[in-house]
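Name: Serine protease
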Amino acid sequence: MMQSKFPALCVFLSFFTFVELQNEEEKPTWPNYRVPVVLPQSVSRLDKAKFDAEPRLDVASSCGPECHKHSATPTLEDLKDYMSYETLYSNGSRTMTDVGLYVFGSRVEPKGKSRSKRQIYGHDSRFSVYGKHFLLNYPFSTSVKLSTGCTGTLVAEKHVLTAAHCIHDGKSYVKGAQKLKVGFLKPKYKDGGKGLNFTDPRILEKMKFQWIRVKRTHVPKGWIKGNAIDIGMDYDYALLELKKPHKRKFMMIGVSPPGRQLPGRRIHFSGYDNDRPGHLVYRFCDVKDETYDLLYQQCDAQPGASGSGVYVRMWKRQKQKWERKIIGIFSGHQWVDKNGDKQDFNVAVRITPLKYAQICFWIKGNYLDCRDG
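Structure predicted for Serine protease:
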């Protein structure tokens, strides 16, 4: 059964290459954004962290697109509060950093009214990625596994982007977050030139993870505070700093364009869905609806994929080259009450100009290197 899936994956990847070549001719272009500046203003020490929350591989909310579209626009003071962030260190200590926000660009309000259902939609369109050539090479190699069960994406030499709920439930850190590790998929045995068949289930079982400990973690206050006022999912992202460089190619982050500007309105992401243990699962789908902070889509997904980096490939005019960038973080689902009918949707957190500025500063420590979103 597993071998029969491999030709289908090859056909799909050929189609994916064809689609990319088509896009190269059309050249969907990364928009230019006026990126704001997010700078630390003060740092205060907090009590030692508690690690008593149950790990969550998925997150749910009752606030859907219409709720967000009709909610009050946050004030500057609100945004400063939401973008402040808590930092957890490997020894259990933590700090709260208040921030200042400067040089705001114009806010673009995306529109859309389509709806979709959650998780698996009839035929399962996910692809388990087989073959060392795919698994250990870009872009699939940027996907990593968290010891709490979620997925993350390499975004710098020592940094991993993931979902906040994978390490913090809004009230407390999850069990295991203090000793959080990031796993890198690698073959247990080298083929030694023997040409091992990496589509063979017996060989797949010999794939293992190499783990690196996390040094510190940043979580926006909007996630911690927002869970009480139904905006938590808008800030469901976190950045992990590893104790040592991972020495692999990583994917850049970018500001999320409106859905209508994405190539084919399509997004892509890979993660470690818990119904396929040990497998890296790839999927793509169309964006059907969006708010300023969230993307609603029909990507088939299961718990464990949370924290996956949602990416697209577009033309960078200034550099005259194609670039893949992470424009969002897969979060989970939202329940929506539409005319008395409960519906749920898969959701990804968009990287807005403000979030880009914050995450970039976490990585680089210098806002001058964070002007190109």
